[in-house]
Design a protein that fits this description.
homodimer, 119 residues, alpha+beta, three-stranded antiparallel β-sheet, three-stranded mixed β-sheet, DNA-binding
Chain lengths: 119, 119
DNA sequence: CGGTAATTTGCAATCGGGTTGCAATTGCGG
DNA sequence: CCGCAATTGCAACCCGATTGCAAATTACCG
């Protein structure tokens, strides 16, 4: 419950260590186990943005986890933040036969509006 | 040069530790530094497939690094291999204004043909 | 060639995120 | 209040990535 509350205080995505500082009465391992649990039950998106730390964010719509409705994520290389681009849906693509698709990650990297406006 | 030769012996993608065993006269750090160098000069794709280890593969066409022509990668959750789906091009998408796109990663996970045919 | 500077290498150490074993604590039904 | 199950904290560990540094190699200039 504490982990959930801490998660809800984040506007965008967050990492395990973000949660550690946000919910500082809890131990890293407890938070980790909660995250794992939530992710298994599809309450969380798990995002690998190549920053080294896995990012998470709360699923705000029920069907966000079905493949057809996956949206993409944007990782800012300047400030390191990662955003859910909720409105950008991943187009369906024709894959070579033989591959069984279970999950799609669409990650865009670059500079976010904030970092572009500064300098 | 030794690193380059070792890389060319891989059919698909490879990790740092793959190269370590392939080019066993070289130290991990030397290989790492070469990879970094190659990547900076866009001779390599760098692929994060969520397996924990960064994967690489040689760029086989000159323009593979321009955004419009990026292809996607497939990570098999059974055998752990990662493939370049050279023929699947990432479609151009309309992004929200304000984001500056520098790089796109399109990663599909699932089961590869090999692992599907076995059992 | 010789000699010095620049580069590259190997080794070991370190970092950091993730993960786990285990003992201590807490929750809860009876 | 007792006892069992679930949760938690702590510390240790794993593993890939990364770096500092000294030694070895290479490049280059006279």
């Amino acid at each position: 419950m504490l982990v959930l509350e801490a998660m809800e205080r984040f506007e965008h995505t967050f990492s395990l260590s973000d949660l550690e500082t946000e919910a500082d009465t809890l131990d890293k391992s407890s938070i980790f186990r909660s995250l794992t649990l939530f992710a298994e039950h599809h309450l969380l998106h798990v995002i690998e943005d190549g920053s080294g730390a896995t990012k998470y964010c709360l699923c705000h719509n029920d069907h966000a986890c079905r493949i057809e409705e996956l949206h993409c994520h944007f990782h800012c290389e300047v400030c390191g933040k990662t955003f859910c681009l909720d409105d950008v849906h991943i187009p369906v693509i024709h894959y070579p036969a033989g591959y069984e698709v279970r999950e799609i990650n669409y990650l865009v990297k670059g500079r976010c509006p904030d970092c572009r406006s500064k300098r």
